[in-house]
Amino acid sequence: MAPPQVGHTAAIATITAASTHHQHQHYHHQQQHQRTGVGGGGYGRKHQHHHLIAAMPTGNSSSNSQRETTSKRPDTTVSVSTMYTQAEEDVGDKSSTCGTLLIFLSVALVILTLPFSLFVCFKVVQEYERAVIFRLGRLMQGGAKGPGIFFILPCIDSYARVDLRTRTYDVPPQEVLTKDSVTVSVDAVVYYRVSNATVSIANVENAHHSTRLLAQTTLRNTMGTRHLHEILSERVSISGSMQVQLDEATDAWGIKVERVEIKDVRLPVQLQRAMAAEAEAAREARAKVIAAEGEQKASKALREASEVIGGSPAALQLRYLQTLSTISAEKNSTIVFPLPIDLITYFLKTNDENTKQNAKAAAAAIARTTVEAIAQQQQSTAM
């Protein structure tokens, strides 16, 4: 019988050899557990138990053996992640196998029910439409089908028609508080269309309804950042800004916003009256300014004319005769002959008797000339 120390050493050597053999077989056991769907937690605990038994002896050799065992301990987290990945691949393989089987059965059904199955399998979409096909709940590769004829398998294929024509949406009147705290009611019209049929079906439940709701909120948000005078005078720029915002937001839904137009801006009745009064006052002020400018120009013209006439007595007499002709042309029954201004001026400037006689003679001559001119005018009028 061996001494106790020798027997203990032999037992340690035997356990160490078994542990080393177990470490070599670790990888194969782990792969086997993954294939059978069993997690690596139990195996790791068993492996740690063996290493703890091997590390019981004291001394440097036992410490080194413990460090080696710890460094070679399997990573349980990586093992579980690998297991889940493998499980997903297995499920995908099973789903692919099941889908292939269903496709085979559907094709067999089509062949067995010919020619009646042709009425079910072949579909037609118009020039302005596209068909988005789903096979076993998944989008088929190749995008939307159409225009024209396309083929589907019964029982496993379904499709949705998408209209690509431009649609119009009348945005209902929205009560908006402007930046300068004025409440207005604004409505608009939005022109949009589906640009990507597949995205409009797969990414959003109802692309048209979502676009309409977004148009309402965009209209309120845009008008709320503008002053009243900007809303009334800058409709084109506001419409362009709304079109850009809507187009960017609906691009992920497969929608293209082509145009936005602001239809009407309704103001409160009191504000309308105030603005009308302000506009009327502004028009009256402009009219007064224009009239004053006209009077100023007329005064300048009269002053220039008086300077010209004052320097030429003959021109003053000619103007006097022209005025009389104008009066007689109006067929008035009474004509007033004013005393010539030059004659009055002449009387005021001189006290000489001879000068007065000369003035009287000149006045008589002017009177005769005037009477003759009036008589000639009356004769021409009578003829």
From TrEMBL:
**Compositional bias (Basic residues) spans?**
21-32
* Domain Band per the UniProt entry, residue ranges: 120-279
Q: What is the lineage of its organism?
A: Eukaryota, Metazoa, Ecdysozoa, Arthropoda, Hexapoda
Q: Where is this region: Disordered?
A: 18-78
One Pfam family in the UniProt entry: Band_7
Q: What is this protein called?
A: Band 7 protein AGAP004871 isoform X1
Q: PANTHER family, per this entry?
A: BAND 7 PROTEIN-RELATED, PODOCIN
What does UniProt give as GO cellular component? plasma membrane
The record lists the membrane-crossing segments as 101-125
| The organism's place on the tree of life at top rank | Eukaryota
